[in-house]
Amino acid sequence: MARCKSCGAEIIWIKTTSGKAMPCNAKEVVYWENKDGKANIVRPNGEVVRADLEGEEGKESGIGYISHFATCPNANSHRRR
Ligand SMILES: [Zn+2]
What we know:
With 81 residues, this protein is mainly β. It is 11% helix and 40% strand. The protein has a four-stranded antiparallel barrel.
């Protein structure tokens, strides 16, 4: 298990279909796929999809991971080089 260097949260690295490794929150979330959704979800197979994190029970699309950048309290420091 890796940890975020700036906030210490547990993260996992998922290789996306574009070939980049993306740091994601270690805890998976249930998502509802939605092209107008507010969240970027990385599926366990590396596909990145737009989704909502809440929706109608029983209609969820599956389980995926949220980019840690979206939730890191120190996200700005990730953008600095
Ligand atoms: Zn962080």
